[in-house]
Amino acid sequence: MNDTVVLHEVAMPPAPALVLRPWCMDDVPALVEVCQDPAMRLWASPAIQSDADAKRWVRTQQQGWATGDRFGFAVLETGLDSPGQLVGNVVLKETAPGKPSAEVGYWTAARARGKGVAPRALEALTGWAFDMLGPGGLRRLELLHQVDNSASCRVAEKSRYDFDRVLPAAPPAFPLDGHLHARHRGA
Ligand SMILES: CC(C)(COP(=O)(O)OP(=O)(O)OC[C@H]1O[C@@H](n2cnc3c(N)ncnc32)[C@H](O)[C@@H]1OP(=O)(O)O)[C@@H](O)C(=O)NCCC(=O)NCCS
Question: Which Pfam families match (predicted)?
Fold first, then answer.
């Protein structure tokens, strides 16, 4: 897959435009800063404390693009006088040729929350995923969150990922039940 893909979400004043592009090593300092937030440690997978951790994580994203099973995008807010500030991450994962379903994930920097960044970025990712992989058979995107992550549940609802079912807890990785939401191609 081409790792120069860049997706755009137009400005929704007062919210600035968003640019989504594959992660790169230049993102390391901002990634380390964003990952110090307790909610990130609780809800999101990257356990990043240092530059070395962040470089390893970015490398994993780059390998995903190379192998075609994981497509992670840094989400940047852009303005007329700004080259782009890191505000989040969206990822399409568990993809394989001809596979009818895949999974999405996301997080937003603490300073950027509550402004609709995650739903807007997820909408861009969802459209791109169905455009790119729909003709090859992708019909369904799944979104999973722990049952007490109400902010993530709201992102799912606002992004038209309908509630599908409760997933039983699977400790230690998933100590509580989860919600599975799904969105179908063309829905
Ligand atoms: C879940 C998350 C991605 C939402 O991103 P976002 O860009 O803030 O999304 P929204 O602006 O649409 O807000 C979603 C909900 O977050 C809550 N919220 C609002 N302001 C908030 C703030 N300042 N801080 C935290 N949560 C806030 C509200 O419940 C909101 O729903 P509402 O629009 O009905 O009020 C973000 O809170 C996050 O990154 N959390 C930590 C990592 C995580 O949980 N990732 C998902 C794992 S499944």
Answer: Acetyltransf_3
